[in-house]
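Lecture notes, structural biology module. Today: joint structure prediction for complexes of two components.
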Amino acid sequence: MSIVENFDLFAPRLINKKELLSPGHRACSGCAEVLAVRLMAKALGENTVIASATGCMEIISSMFPTTAWRVPWVHVAFENAASVASGIEAGIKALRKKGKIDDRYVKVVGMGGDGATMDIGFQALSGAMERGHDMIYVCFDNEAYMNTGIQRSSATPMGASTTTAPAGKVSIGQKTWKKNMPEILVAHGIPYVATVCPSYPLDFIRKMEKAKSIKGPSYIHCFSVCPTGWRCPSHQAVSMGRLAVETGVFPLYEVEDGHYRLSPDMPKKLKPIKDYFKGQGRFRHLGPEEIDKIQEKVTTEFNKLKEKAKFLKTGNV
Amino acid sequence: MGKRMGMEVAMAVAEAVGLCNIDMAAVYPITPQSHIAEHLSDLVANGEVDAEFVTVESEHSAMSAVIGASGTGARSYTATSSQGLMYMHELLPIASAMRLPITMAIANRAVSGPLNILNDHSDIMPQRDSGWISIFVENGQEAIDMSIIAFKIAEHQDVMLPVNINIDGFQLTHMVEPFEMPSQEEVNKFLPPFVPHATLHPAKPVTMGAFAMSDYFPEIMKAKDEALKNSKKVVVDVFNEWGKMFGRNYKLVETYKTDDAEVIMLTMGSMGETAQMAIDQLRAKGIKAGLVKLRLWRPFPFEEIKAVIKNAKKLIVTDRAISFGGPGGPVFSEIKSAMYAETQRPLIYNYIYGLGGRDVPVGDFIGMFERVIADTANQLADTYEFWGVRE
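The predicted structure, tokenised, for the full assembly:
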């Protein structure tokens, strides 16, 4: 029995009871992204400042004059959450050093969706990570521009139908492979990169806590099921996230100082991706040949990752 | 006591900012701002300025980072120019709406295309409606003084708005000029510590930059407009305070031989000094010429402008930018709207000049006066002309 199946047993002891993202926000029912954001806030605790990009999580949590946030939170624009977070980190560092604010350690977090992170905010994120700020950046990846109406991004997987890369008589929908963002961040040589999914809350929280404990930049890539955009029933948000992991579409792993480690939640044998595709309207148009092609890519990528975990594991120098 | 010295103006600006106990600066290099960035980083590297110096990867991130830092209550500074300012554009109205007292130097430079690195005002003009306080300086001493004064205006409890200081690129930033640099003690006395309204810190969690739709948005816009208009009084007070302490008195609108002037010229920025020489030469010829120098661009000093130009017969507004397909230069447009309801007002002429760093010597200013005086049929009034442009 895995930890996830024993969740009810472990959860009360391991998860912070304090809700730092309060109920009453305006997310869609079944939104796995807001579940992930809530878990993130729980894992990081009160000594956190969050800079959010424009996007679903921003508009559902900060409708003036209300706010769902019980930690300091700021939104400035779409493409600059990482730069804003880097400025907050610099500001707090300077003020703390000069004794102008409480002498306590505060973790600064930048957050954004896949569009805000992998497309329009790519440069700002790369800069902030390269400069070595003591901050975490979390990408909540729901694989398209959901806030503006399900347009394709560089995170949209091959074959998915979106409103700007729709499936049609002469199109399979998205014609490009998903950009491998965690690997790009690994290439920055930062201390910690991890992938998480709120369907695995304990793995999620452990990795957040790890990122919090690291003095320097960390990047967390969070797989966030969007029932609205993916056209799947809202009650399947959690199980769909599990299927993404179990099929190897979204493997859970972490890279600490260049050393790879697959999450213990990863199954020994992957399920076929058709199990994951069949519940989602965005893949409904795909035929067996197209699915086979994608299956081959998923298998290859997962094998590459396993090789890295084998040869670049902690202890190997 | 301050110290008499000579130095390149850009470096002197960095020295002056260094006296202001800044906590954080985020700067991306661009000609002709780069000497400000370089010298400030020297001061930080040598421990003379105790601040976090964030070498961002773009101007967009420079403004984003100072917004974040200012949100924590840190005194935050940046500097840019031209394309860099255009790249920041998206964030400028956000900084003012969030009421963050950021201070920014702009080494004014022509906006591309074609690419050009020399001075005009086409970079700041598209930022006019961003809700920032906008000051133009005429010489090195003013650039230094305003760099210090700006923090006090921005952080004043009745203002809490960002301020930009416009320093003509090359024509000012790269000049070696003599000036008086205030001492650290004097600046400490003049500039109190920044006391923010609210900060991004877990000691008291707040939400900043919230999402507002039509039920609140118009009120927030009106509040910003009121705040900017009300800041004029504080600008005057802080200028007066500076004058008392340092003996250098600044007004929103400076005048030179305007009392009996029949024809007045209006300039903004470093061209004022050249124009002033033209006034002396015209006066020597018996022409009643005068000069008005506009120091405060936003909030626009309507009353002060009206008071000094209303008695002239003709007014020559000079612009170093153009509103393409519009009324002419942006300063011209503003002055015309200021005078529209006045029963007694001069005929207003407009020259677009010095674009992309084209030199404008004293003789050109005299030429503008002569052309306007010769226009006895008033045919050129209320129109604009490019000055010194080949056809």
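Point to remember: The longest helix of chain A spans residues 288-311.
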